Amino acid sequence: MSKAKSEKKQREPLSSYSILFIIIIVVGLATVVCSFITPSVTAASLPQILDSSVEGLIDAAEISFFLLILGGCLGMVTKIGALDAGITALVRKMHGHELLLIPIIMAIFALLGSSYGFCEEAVPFYALLSLTMVAAGFDTMVAVGTVLLGAGVGCLGSTVNPFANGVAIDTLKTAGIEADPGTTIVLGLVLLAAAYALAVFFVMRYARKVKADKGSTILSLQEQHAMEQAFGTEAQEGEEAQEGEATPAMTRTQGVALALFGLSFLVMIVGFIPWQNFGVDFFTLGGVPGEDGSWAVLPWSAWITGAPLGEWYFKDASVWFLIMSIVIGVVARMSERQIVNAWIDGAADMVGVALVVGLARAISILMASTHLDVMILDNASQLLAGSSAIVFAPVCYLIFLGLSFIITSTSALATLSMPIMGSLAASLGFSPDVMVMIFVAANGLANLFSPTAAFLPGLMMAKVEYSTWLKWALVPIIVIGVASVVVLTAAMMVL
């Protein structure tokens, strides 16, 4: 490597915090400019721009605290040595077949994303998959691609996701427009299959290259160093296991702790899936609604957090992981001081991640308070009036893609945009079913590259810079986006 190239590699990119602060300032300035053009936009004052970052942190407090508590639980398991032992055992078992981990894990994440919008909930898996993938001979970009593209294409091809399809269809219904859930499910499955196949192809192609030659990694020297510091011990142990060298066997205590940690994630996932939307009432059995809408007698699955499985949000998950942290510590026979210190150390590692979540929320808060988002939608609808299906579908996709870049909440964007864009589609004689899926697919693609999306904390956990992810993911994102537009345009022309 030449000296010039080495110096270029070592140049530090902007941090996630700086990127988000720059976007907040740009949005604030945009509201000032737009306020001179149209009275529908209110110019953001300097206090509004400055306050938005704090308001975002407050608005995202539930998710941020969940990440801190999860970090504490992860710190407990790491202190016990259960993760190291478990990953070493997994790599030994998968020796020669490590690539199979990628499509299997991506399929699981894709199904979760398609069914209930598994996105923010995927953040903890970036660190876990980084440990596993590095130990298996890959790098952290393989881990990031596996998690982000896996969950991302699932959201892009949502079928019964209540936070995307459900809110969009319900919002259209409120506006007097009926959308057929059956059609959206079929379109979602087509999008999911196409996007999943493309995502697996790109991740596995890169993984094979890195596995064969570590020098082919796209990570910068700083990122490689950070990866080695964070996950190098596991990688070394994994290589020793592959070479058949002696490695300490997992103890019974470590095995139990790891099983409890895995159970914690499983229960969390089950808790987030809206089972009642699928006609499953098993988790609400035993509950008797009170007159004020609360449960006079709690369902059996609500005894711990107060909410039955299927109705959880991050507060409930926080309570669950806090309890499991204590259980794991007791099982490992740790003293009270050891439990507290290990938990605090783990939570401390998540502080930066938790702050990023709040800063990302600030952007959508600033847009909503100044009505910049409504102005963009109104102008977009006027632009599309009278267009043909072959123009209407791709342009709508780009509009939703741009809005999703800065409005982080899928349900909020659906509530805001579908009455305007859905009514426009209906007036032009286009299918509202396809319009719903254009929104869903564009929003899902934006989740793969927008700095305001949920994956930025995951990148930090995996020690991958945002600029590096964009450099690697640019081609897969474009290809998946083009494939989605082709499917949706064809559907708009036929239906």
Automatic annotation (TrEMBL):
For whether the record's keyword set contains Phosphoprotein, the answer is: no
Q: Which PANTHER family does the record cross-reference, listed alphabetically? A: ARGININE REPRESSOR, BASIC AMINO ACID ANTIPORTER YFCC-RELATED
Q: Which organism is it from?
A: Gordonibacter massiliensis
**Locations listed in the record:** Cell membrane
GO terms for cellular component? plasma membrane
Topological type in the membrane? Multi-pass membrane protein
Q: Which residues cross the membrane?
A: 20-43, 63-87, 99-118, 124-142, 147-164, 184-204, 256-275, 317-335, 347-369, 389-416, 428-449, 469-494
Q: Which Pfam families match?
A: DcuC (PF03606)
The alphabetical list of record keywords is: Cell membrane, Membrane, Transmembrane, Transmembrane helix
Show the InterPro entries listed in the entry. Answer: C4_dicarb_anaerob_car-like, DASS-Related_Transporters
For this entry, the protein name equals YfcC family protein
